[in-house]
Structures are given as structure tokens and as C-alpha cells.
User: Fold these one by one.
Assistant:
Number 1:
Amino acid sequence: MADESTQIAVDHYTADEWVAESTASEVTSLRSSINDYIYENGRRYHAYHAGSYWGSNDEKAMDALDISHHVYMLLLRGKLHLAPIPNEVNRVLDVGTGTGVWAMDFADLHPEASVIGTDLSPIQPAFVPSNLRFEVDDCCDDWLYEKPFDFIHARGLFGCVSDWDRFYKQALQHLVPGGYLEQVEWSVWVDSDDGSAKGTKMDESGHISLEAAKKFGKSLQTVNEMEENMKKAGFTDVTVHTFKIPVGPWPQDKRLKNLGRYQRLVWEESLEMWVMMLWTSILGWRREEVELHLMEVRNELRNSKIHAYQIAYVFLLPYSKSFIDSIPGGFAMDENQPSRQYRYESTI
Ligand SMILES: C[S@@+](CC[C@H](N)C(=O)[O-])C[C@H]1O[C@@H](n2cnc3c(N)ncnc32)[C@H](O)[C@@H]1O
């Protein structure tokens, strides 16, 4: 072993190896900065690109995301996706992966696949299937993946993206021929067939959030705007599946009753994380005012006379050769570019 007086032999690196080595150590030293979470109004928020997303990432929010996953699974009758991808896939991306629950299930079911889950928050577990890795990344930045994907999955990205046109173009540029982008979203407002949700605090909440998100610069009208945005980005071959998600166990149908029971739980667990930042920082409400409003919503969630539901959409977007051909210079991805593992910015 070398002591202080011994000269340390210098290892030899190629330029590329040295870049890889430096990046790895930078990742380690900077990893802590993404955990310097922001605390506000009793909730915890992401530090990477702080302030760019309104949802909190604390334990309660994480629990709510995991319950939502169960709702999505009930909605799609136990399927992780509707896109007709082959049984064996190579590369899969889950954008805005949250707690990573979808990506973990997918990686377990597809041991042959190499799965990447990205998010602004590093809230995913450390021990995951060996064919899965999580990265802290902002999907609104340039996508710098080294190889295209067979399947790109995005779920619950309402209010996460200001420029959907760019998002869809980047996603489609990162698909292999035959690949699919699937996006699953639900409305942030409620409807009812018998008018019982009209004028409720639940109804009002959705509209307040829509207004706040507009001011914030990331629309929450995602479900209404997606198809047009996808078509604007150059795709005509969009398939849309529409579902109703009851909020509460009010439906007669057993399956919907069960779905509604879980969705009510999602509401109860998520309400504050959905609105606290938008209503206080953007609309100027006081924390107590928000809490009072949410207390009324909670009461309504237990009112059997309110038959509210949300609309969920699943959009399937296949790889489009005509779109890729229309990009000046051809396929926009540089296959030789090294993949970016993490992007960090100091939060100080
Ligand atoms: C409603 S959650 C959905 C999580 C997950 N897709 C699911 O369905 O369980 C939205 C997630 O998107 C992440 N997010 C928001 N804006 C983002 C962005 N610009 N880039 C990457 N992730 C983002 C949030 O941190 C959050 O985890």
C-alpha cells in the first residue's frame, strides 16, 4: 500500500474513459443537492429544477401515487398498458415515473427489457429489478438518450409540461419504427350524469386549479388538449380510449364501485398535494383558506348524493415514418452521443 512518500502511479485513460470517470464522481458529489428538498406549507417539494412542478413529493404524496397506480390498474383491467407492443421489448422509458411503481412492475414482467424511469424527484426505491434504472431528469429539457425506445410510457403528466408540441416531437423522435408512445391522463375536474356534482366544492376545486395552472404556465386541461397537441406535433394516427372513474363507491356496478372506492382514497390522500402550491403561491390563498376549502371537499367525498366521476384518457401514438421523414436532416437522434445519466443544477 502507498504511504505519503510513495509516488502514486498514474492510471491511463482514454479521453472518453476520463469523461466517464469525471461524470461518475460529479454524479456522486451532486447527488445530495437533489435531495435538498424545499419545504412549504407543511409539504415537501422537489429540488431539481425547483418550482417547476406544483405537486409535493413527501411520503403522503408518494402513498397517493401508489394508490393511483392501483386505480389505473383497475381501470385497465390489470394491464400496465394498452399499446400493442410485442411480448419481448428492448428499451422502455417511463417519463415522470413518480415512485416508479409502473416501471418496477413493467421491468418485473419484462426481464428482457431495459427500462428507464425519469422524474424531477428521486423518490424511487433503491432496490429495484436489475433491468431498471431511475434518473433525475426534466422531460421539458432536450432528450439526450443514446438509443431509441420500443415503448415510451407517460402517466399523470397533467400540469407538468408547458410545451407539449416539443414533448411529443422529442418522444416520437426517440421511438424505434413500430414503437409506441402511450399517455394516460385524467381530468382534474369532476362531472356527473345526474348533475349532482355541479356547483360542489369538488367541482369548484377543479376550476380553481385550472385557473391557477394557466397562470403557472403548465395547463391542467391536458385531457382536452392532448389529442390536438399530438396532431399539431405531426401525428394523425392517434388512438384514444376514454373511461369514467367514479369518485366514491356510488355506482351500482361492482367493478366501478370498487374503482370509486379507491379513487375516493386517492382524492383524500392527494387533495392537499394537488392544490397547496398552486392555490397559495400562484393564487395567493392563505394555507388556512386552502385547508378550509379542502375540509368541505372531504365532506362531499363522503356524501352519497354526489355522483361525481373524472374522465380518463389513454392515448396511443405509434411511431410515424412520415413524421420522422419530415424532420430536416432526418432522424434527429445522434446514435453516437453518450447517454446522459443525470442533469443537475445547483439549487442554491
Ligand atoms: C402525478 S405524478 C405521476 C407519477 C407516475 N407517472 C404515476 O403514474 O404513478 C407526476 C410526476 O411527474 C413528475 N414531473 C413533473 N414535471 C416533470 C418534468 N418536467 N420532468 C420529469 N418529471 C416531471 C413529478 O415529479 C411526479 O412524480
Number 2:
Amino acid sequence: MMYLCGECGRLFDEPATWFESRGEFWGMPCSERMTGCPYCHSTDFDEYDPDDDYDEDEESEDGEDDDGREADQ
Ligand SMILES: [Zn+2]
């Protein structure tokens, strides 16, 4: 199973875990365990399965945007 970061778009095998300070709770330093992208530390990531052979319509439109306009100067 791979994961795809929704922030930087990179793939990774395992989400990274780190601790983020959440201030204090009843006088004790409180930190939250975070899970996310090892590259950009975004928690916005999705499971990505490369074996999943779903049909994706590839849009290979040859958009020729050349109307022969000359630069008017
Ligand atoms: Zn990322």
C-alpha cells in the first residue's frame, strides 16, 4: 500500500509520525502524535494502490492553440 500526499503530490510507503506541541494541559506539556507526509508534513494524504487497475480515461487531446496571430506591437 502506498500513500499519496494531497499537498506535494509525492508517493510514500509509510506515513511519517511526529509530535506536535499542543501547549499545556493541566500544567503538563501536551503534544499530539501526527501522521502525514514525510516530505512536507502535510496530514492531507490518501491511500494509493498502484495495483488497482481502474480504467482511467486519458484525455490526450491535441489542443492546437495556434491561430497564427502575430504579435501586435
Ligand atoms: Zn507532502
